[in-house]
Amino acid sequence: LRGLPRTMELSEYELQRLAHIQRNHEMLVRLGLAEPHFEKETRGESQVKRTRTRKPIVAPETLRRSARMKGERPQYTSEKIDQFGEELDRECETTGKRRKTNVDSDDTDGEIARREIDESTAAFLREARAALLAFCTVEEGEAPESAGAWKEEATRRWGAQAGAGEGASERQWE
């Protein structure tokens, strides 16, 4: 508790901390370790820090540098820009035609695939309709057989608005 003003009151934690520090110091004195066995070396003139001379960084030649940074003058050619542009236009036209022919062959394959999908979907819907007809009966116990009978059944079940809307006259009720 040396070095602290007596007027200042210490908390319980601070008192406990100082007691630990004092006990540890006493243990070090008993073991003979209180004083460090080496002394700090003082820097003299013999230990002057050497400064490294930095080597200039040589840029590798593999890196791309602009001609302006290298100090080179631009090299102009006698090539006409118009001719170069016409060649590019011709290339674009020929590649565009190739693409169109490939798209045409894909369209026929796509149409065939769409037809197959439509046919399989229609077949599925026919089978589903046949299966549902077994459960779909009128009050008398039998399924309607004509489009008019189906329309009457729909009106009876869901009201006058059943089947109304766009294309109502063209709708198949079976």
UniProtKB/TrEMBL annotation:
Region Disordered: start-end pairs: 141-174
Superkingdom: Eukaryota
Protein's UniProt name: Uncharacterized protein
Organism: Coccolithus braarudii
